[in-house]
Amino acid sequence: MDRKNSTCLSTYIESNTLWEAVFKKSYRVIAVKILFPDRITEISTRVEILEDNRTVSNCENHPRITDIRRNSQLFICPHGVIGNTIRIMPVRTQTSSETEHFEICEVYVFIQWNQACLRPDLPYMATGVKIINPPKFVYECKEDYELVGDNTVYCQEDGTWTQTSFKCQRRTDCGKLPEVANGVIISNSTTINSTAWLKCNEGFRPLSDHLTYCLPTGMWTSLSFSCELIKCDQSPVIPHGSAELPNGFTYGSKMHITCDQGYMAVEPEFRECHKNGSWGNLNICTPTDDEKKSYFTPGATCSHYTTGQRRGRAQKVNSSLQARTLDS
């Protein structure tokens, strides 16, 4: 504006109507005062503070103050807002018309005198985020790089940033491997291209991945390690027999097999839960000699049929077999 209250600027009120005051650098804005012509009494106004075209805050609208010469409207920015652009926009109401003008005569911006800090220089392979309240800048490293040193600088009253030794360097290490319950991760190194593997304690086995590799990105391919307790079938099926599990069904537990009547065990009757979660061979019950003898009844008659070749009918042939026991 021209610092003359007698001259005003106007424009039609449309959906994107606004006035902007852009500063060469950022300041902490604490209030904005707008002077309107005497005839402007109905238009509501909104004021925004922007930093690099990004809205930082809206300043609160205080009741319009009217003096003898001009109507004025005061906007207070809570706690002060750092920005480099003041945006002034009319707020349309139901009584507004498309031909209505938005006219202002003067804009006063009240700032806190200590200077705002501009965006700091970025080290090699670094990026970052500027935080407004409190004013600080947080550095970050790009992919495949890791940060070294303090990655945060703070804005000082003279408009300069605090010093830091921050830098980004290419990753050479994937970092410490995690601790695993009931197991341990073994690795000779954690540098790029290293390999690590999971070794579970006795009685446990890997639940999922058990190998991981250190990639050039400085990341392990997997860190989802866990060891689960080895368990065997708690209800094993014993052909012609039954099982007792006196001390459970986990790794190292014993199982006692009892064969049904007429059957006997041809292998030791005790089985152990192995590290692969198996009881081993359970088909150890075979018929006793008495059971084998009962397969045949002395003096039994065997009947069978043959097919007649001439008339195509079945002929019954009876024959008597002298059944003998297996031990005769």
TrEMBL record:
InterPro entries: SEZ6_CSMD_C4BPB_Regulators, Sushi/SCR/CCP_sf, Sushi_SCR_CCP_dom. Residues 115-170, 172-229, 230-287 form the Sushi domain. It holds the Pfam family Sushi. Keywords: Disulfide bond, Repeat, Signal, Sushi. Disulfide bonds join 141-168, 200-227. PROSITE patterns: SUSHI. PANTHER family: PROTEIN CBR-CLEC-78. This is Sushi, von Willebrand factor type A, EGF and pentraxin domain-containing protein 1. It comes from Araneus ventricosus. The gene is Svep1_26.
